[in-house]
């Protein structure tokens, strides 16, 4: 029987013999070792512990090691309640510690436990320790077996070492092509290595190998292939992470209709909706998923993200607390907490710009500049922020110059799609007295938003007018429709009242449509139309009676380098349009801006650029060159 490896038959023979001779030590040993060989490690361990004197040191080590391995495997099972999520893993850790305290005479058993410990540490979310031990093993020339490499690959991803994770997970898949979970994890490792094409190709190959309704031999109808559903869900998310959000939506929505009770699928669709700029639709999906499976953390994380996006921090807070209490050691929960802190903490922005109009007395001045800082305090009561702003602007005109320094303080309110902001301050030149602004904004669903801005002593009005001691009050109304992240249109109406009696009215329309969406390249088409008119013809500042323009442009956004939440990107913005001014006719006006963006940390961004344009004022063409810079801390 043993020669034919009929372990169960052998065990039955041993049991019959033991029934006749219950005190036979040899048969007792055979029974224990056979139970261990067929995988009944806990029963074998219990019998061995009853009569340990019958076993050699090496056998004892192997039996203890087998029990540790079984305990570690059991710790990976789905639990009935999240309070016991890590109880089995912690119990396995105690058993492993007991094994370590034993005098071990079997090197193979000890080595096996070393590899099993990698799995246990991964289960306990001690990813840094997994990676450190794995690298030590490689340095020592020890080959880690495939069964442990899946856990190693997961920990490498948690520690943001995706290239090493690709190597580890590729070994797992090569060793066992049927390990589909490792194959999907490998696809995610390729994404985090910025290799989106290879990730999609891997998942497409897996899908081709998996029929939706496979048939067992002789069956009349197929059965549901849940693994294919999991791979299709992963495929949709990979498309989303690779900027193909429309393709991701087209992949996941039909699946959600076919399998509406799949919590992970509903949560994945919510993630896509959130990336498309639809937090309300996303929140609905996350809540459905949480109802279907209240132990799955993905929909809980999604609810925190969607509610935070909507400014409903008070509703997100209890969900966040539950996640921190039950899953605080998990990487995704720690990432959630970093984003939460970023949204709650103070933020700041420093900006500066300077321009040179070389060929004449442009309305902006032959030379102009501005710089300033804005600081927003921490979020108070989940709705309020105190803010302060300091700006300095100046320009050189043909016969005079102007310098303005203004400090403002104010408060901001945002909750449930409603936003309001009030600021008040005073300019250093004393022109126009106290300056103030009041802004309101409102979101209607996931696509529409409207806003109103009222300003007294508007610093954004003409500096040329200010040089003549003339200020303006303004009112602006906006309405925008954002179809999704890649298309939208906005409308605006504005009226400015100048101190000299001039009234300037204008309207503008802008639209954008994404043409190319790739992992490292976004190309968007732009359209801008605006027109305005003034009521005073003899104003001592540029104030055309009627003016209009139509501009077409292209925005090219290229990722040069990226590693998780750090990146370097190039951006080229080019426009060309027809500018018309009453009494002066029409002219083509080109403009180009090239800039860089450095995302240094999740809360540190540096942007800078240079621009060139050839505007026309009163029929006279100017050449303008400008530089700009911005640094942001916080959200």
From TrEMBL:
<dbReference type="InterPro" id="IPR023870">
    <property type="entry name" value="PGA_export_porin_PgaA"/>
</dbReference>
<feature type="domain" description="PgaA membrane beta barrel">
    <location>
        <begin position="349"/>
        <end position="632"/>
    </location>
</feature>
<protein>
    <recommendedName>
        <fullName>PgaA membrane beta barrel domain-containing protein</fullName>
    </recommendedName>
</protein>
<dbReference type="GO" id="GO:1901515">
    <property type="term" value="F:poly-beta-1,6-N-acetyl-D-glucosamine transmembrane transporter activity"/>
</dbReference>
<dbReference type="InterPro" id="IPR019734">
    <property type="entry name" value="TPR_rpt"/>
</dbReference>
<dbReference type="InterPro" id="IPR049003">
    <property type="entry name" value="PgaA_barrel"/>
</dbReference>
<dbReference type="Pfam" id="PF21197">
    <property type="entry name" value="PgaA_barrel"/>
</dbReference>
<dbReference type="InterPro" id="IPR011990">
    <property type="entry name" value="TPR-like_helical_dom_sf"/>
</dbReference>
<dbReference type="Pfam" id="PF14559">
    <property type="entry name" value="TPR_19"/>
</dbReference>
């Amino acid at each position: 029987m043993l020669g034919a490896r009929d372990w169960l038959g052998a065990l039955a023979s041993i049991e019959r013999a033991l029934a006749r001779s219950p005190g036979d030590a040899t048969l007792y040993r055979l029974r224990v070792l056979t139970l261990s060989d067929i995988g009944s490690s806990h029963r074998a361990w219990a019998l061995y512990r009853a009569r340990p004197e019958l076993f050699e040191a090496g056998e004892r080590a192997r039996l203890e090691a087998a029990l540790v391995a079984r305990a570690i495997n059991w710790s990976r099972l789905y639990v009935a309640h999240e309070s016991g999520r890590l109880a089995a893993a912690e119990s396995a850790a105690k058993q492993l510690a007991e094994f370590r305290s034993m005098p071990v005479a079997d090197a193979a058993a000890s080595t096996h436990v070393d590899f099993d410990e990698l799995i246990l540490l991964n289960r306990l979310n001690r990813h840094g320790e997994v990676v450190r031990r794995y690298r030590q093993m490689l340095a020592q020339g020890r080959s880690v077996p495939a069964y442990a490499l899946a856990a190693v690959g997961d920990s490498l991803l948690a520690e943001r070492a995706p290239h090493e994770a690709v190597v580890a997970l590729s070994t797992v898949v090569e060793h066992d092509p049927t390990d589909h979970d490792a194959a999907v994890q490998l696809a995610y490792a390729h994404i985090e290595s910025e290799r989106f094409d290879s990730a999609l190709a891997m998942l497409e190959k897996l899908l081709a190998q998996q029929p939706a309704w496979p048939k067992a031999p002789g069956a009349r109808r197929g059965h549901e292939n849940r693994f294919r559903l999991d791979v299709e869900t992963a495929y949709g998310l990979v498309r989303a992470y690779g900027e193909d959000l429309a393709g991701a939506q087209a992949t996941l929505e039909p699946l959600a209709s076919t399998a509406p009770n799949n919590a992970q699928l509903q949560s994945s669709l919510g993630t896509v909706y959130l990336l498309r700029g639809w937090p309300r639709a996303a929140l609905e999906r996350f809540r459905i998923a949480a109802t279907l499976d209240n132990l799955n953390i993905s929909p809980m994380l999604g609810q925190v993200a969607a509610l935070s996006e909507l400014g409903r921090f008070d509703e997100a807070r209890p969900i966040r607390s539950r996640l921190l209490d039950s899953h605080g050691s998990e990487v995704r929960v720690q990432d959630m907490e970093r984003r939460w802190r970023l949204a709650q903490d103070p933020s700041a922005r420093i900006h500066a710009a300077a321009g040179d109009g070389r060929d004449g007395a442009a309305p902006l001045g032959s030379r102009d500049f501005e710089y300033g800082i804005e600081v927003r305090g921490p979020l108070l009561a989940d709705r309020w922020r105190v803010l302060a702003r300091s700006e300095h602007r100046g320009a050189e005109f043909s016969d005079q110059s102007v310098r303005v320094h203004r400090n403002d303080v104010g408060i901001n309110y945002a909750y449930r799609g409603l936003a309001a902001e009030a600021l008040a301050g005073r300019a250093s030149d004393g022109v126009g007295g106290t300056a103030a602004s009041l802004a309101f904004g409102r979101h209607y669903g996931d696509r529409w938003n409207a806003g109103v801005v009222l300003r007294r002593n508007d610093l954004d009005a003409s500096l040329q007018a200010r040089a003549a001691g003339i200020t303006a009050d303004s009112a602006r109304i906006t309405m925008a429709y954002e179809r999704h992240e890649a298309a939208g249109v906005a409308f605006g109406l504005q009226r400015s009242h100048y101190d000299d009696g001039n009234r300037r009215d204008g309207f503008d329309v802008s639209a954008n449509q994404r043409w190319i969406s790739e992992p490292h390249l976004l190309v968007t088409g732009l359209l801008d139309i605006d027109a305005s008119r003034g009521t005073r013809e003899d104003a001592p500042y540029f104030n055309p009676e009627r003016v209009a323009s139509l501009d077409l442009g292209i925005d090219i956004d290229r990722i040069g380098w990226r590693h998780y939440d750090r990146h370097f990107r190039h951006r080229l913005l080019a426009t060309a349009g027809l500018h018309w001014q009453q009494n002066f006719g029409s002219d083509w006006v080109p403009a180009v801006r090239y800039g860089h963006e450095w995302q240094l940390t999740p809360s540190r961004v540096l942007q800078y650029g240079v621009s060139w344009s050839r505007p026309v004022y009163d029929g006279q063409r100017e050449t303008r060159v400008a530089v700009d810079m911005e640094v942001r801390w916080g959200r």
